[in-house]
Structures are given as structure tokens and as C-alpha cells.
Design a protein that fits this description.
Structural class: mainly beta
Largest sheet: 12 strands, antiparallel, barrel
Oligomer: single chain
Number of helices: 6
Number of strands: 12
Radius of gyration: 20 Å
CATH topology: Porin
Helix content: 10-25%
Order of helices and strands: HHHEEEEEEEEEHHEEHE
CATH class: Mainly Beta
CATH superfamily: monomeric porin ompg
């Protein structure tokens, strides 16, 4: 297991909350969260390290999918604010991490041992920050999904597998993902990398990208029925504690866009990769 620590000169000046975000060693008690948060954290006590709140500002640049009829360009820079936080009580938890790419997560930690943990979760895009380029589509409404999340260690790496199923009945689509990542400590800089693969079912793709015969005839475009797709992602980033309560982060991502997406008449270009870069400064309460 990777056991990396802050330089001794900073430890007396960092609050517990800042150490949570700045460190890079992991314990099984930290599993009830997204891998992007786990890999940045230093969790020592389940009663304290899993409960925190931070408020931040960010600058992000994106080069992403564009869709017919959508306003704006595929490449742009923007600024915004975000809230990260989590609360755990008797294995029940609620979390929201802007780096994860999804929104609010409510769950129950059903199983934990020294190396593995399994969570039953419900999640929605509500409150999410549009930083994760999923390379598929943009949705006009927040979708509620239910599923499971398995996290564990493989040597110095942390892995996370998740399955999410539509809970609204709108399309009954499914997403399955697998991620593996690790971190490297250099002085007080915590560098990390994550690679992943995600499968999206035909029902979910077609709900967002399909064009029915009736719609095709009305708008004089080709009809289209989307199949299931697979995309791959890569992330590199760094976390640095500036002071007792201030934390700096920078993260870059690239996600492939499969043919099942670009073949849709709803898609306005044939870009095969979506990229993004984000820097942020946050205050930990």
C-alpha cells in the first residue's frame, strides 16, 4: 500500500481538514467516496476524515462535443464556484465532489475489510460541475440512477468499479465503469493519475442520440438508432496545501468519443477526443 506523508514542517500548521485533502495515504475507511477524491485524500479516522466541507473557485478550459442547435463553441474557457463535501453516519453517507464528474451521491457502505469496500448508491447530476467530459451527450435534465460501487487496492493502485441503472423509467439505460489510479508524493505536492473505461448501453445512448423516423422526416435528416458504446479516459492532476485551510488543485482530462456518438445526426462534429483542464483554489472549513 502506498503510504506517503506531508513534510514535517507543514504538519503543525495544517488543520485536520486540510490534511484530508493534501495527503496521499489511504485506509479502508476512506473507501466510501469517489476514486478522484480517495486518491487525493489522507484519511485516518472514519469519524472525522469522512466529514468535511469546502468551498472553492475554479477556472476551466474545455474542448468538447458540439451538438446541432446548441449555442456556443466546442472550445471555451469559463470560471465558476463549487462545493465539495461528505457526511457519514452509521455507514450511511452523502457526498458531492466536483472532480468526480457526477453530482450528489447518497449511499450505504454495505461491506468493508482491509482491502475492499462495497457501496450501494443513488446518484444524480444535480449540483454537478460540468468538468468531466463524458464524450457522449449533454442532458437537459438531472437523471436519477441506482447501483453499486466496489473499491479496492491492487498493490499501490486503487481501483473502482461501478454500475448505474436508470431509476426514472425514462430509458432504462445502464452505465458500467472501471477506473484505476495511483498517486506520487514529491515534497508536499501530491501528483496522481487515473485511467478508465466505461460502457454505455444502447438504451441510454439511443435516448440521448437517437433520431426516430418521425423526427427525421419532420426535420429532413436521417433517422438513427444508437448502439451501446465504450469510451476510455485519462486524468492527471496535482494537489497542494497552500496554508492551513487553502488547497490548490490542477487537473487535465481526455476522454474518447466513440463512433456510436459521432454517427448520430444530433452530433455537429467528428471529434474523437474531448479534453479539459481545470485549476481551483478552495477553502476547507
Amino acid at each position: 500500500m502506498n503510504n506517503l506523508k506531508l513534510e514535517k514542517s507543514l504538519i503543525p500548521h495544517l488543520s485536520l481538514a486540510a490534511m484530508i485533502l493534501a495527503g496521499a495515504s489511504f485506509t479502508s475507511t476512506s473507501f466510501a467516496s469517489d476514486i478522484s477524491q480517495n486518491i487525493r485524500n489522507n484519511s485516518q479516522e472514519v469519524s472525522s476524515s469522512d466529514n468535511y466541507l469546502e468551498l472553492g473557485v475554479m477556472i476551466r478550459g474545455r474542448d468538447e462535443a458540439t451538438y446541432k442547435g446548441a449555442n456556443g463553441k466546442g472550445s471555451y474557457t469559463s470560471t465558476g464556484v463549487f462545493i465539495n463535501g461528505s457526511y457519514n453516519w452509521n455507514n450511511l453517507f452523502i457526498e458531492n465532489y466536483s472532480e468526480s464528474g457526477h453530482g450528489l451521491v447518497v449511499g450505504y457502505n454495505a461491506f468493508t475489510n482491509d482491502n475492499w469496500s462495497f457501496d450501494v448508491i443513488a446518484t444524480t447530476d444535480w449540483g454537478h460541475v460540468t468538468f468531466e467530459n463524458n464524450g457522449r451527450y449533454r442532458s437537459d435534465k438531472d437523471e436519477l440512477t441506482v447501483g453499486g460501487r466496489l473499491s479496492g487496492y491492487l498493490g499501490n493502485n486503487i481501483v473502482q468499479f461501478a454500475i448505474n441503472q436508470d431509476a426514472t423509467g425514462d430509458h432504462n439505460g445502464t452505465k458500467v465503469s472501471a477506473l484505476i489510479g495511483r498517486n506520487w508524493q514529491f515534497r508536499n505536492w501530491n501528483f496522481h493519475g487515473i485511467v478508465g473505461v466505461e460502457y454505455v448501453s444502447a438504451k441510454l445512448n439511443d435516448y440521448n442520440l437517437g433520431v426516430s423516423d418521425e423526427t427525421a422526416s419532420h426535420f429532413d435528416v436521417d433517422s438513427y438508432e444508437a448502439d451501446g458504446s465504450v469510451n476510455f479516459s485519462t486524468e492527471i492532476g496535482v494537489t497542494y496545501p497552500i496554508s492551513e485551510n487553502l488547497v490548490f488543485r490542477a487537473t487535465g482530462r481526455a476522454v474518447t468519443i466513440p463512433d456510436e456518438v459521432t454517427d448520430s445526426p444530433r452530433y455537429a462534429n467528428l471529434d474523437s477526443v474531448a479534453t479539459s483542464f481545470r485549476t481551483s483554489l478552495s477553502y476547507v472549513f
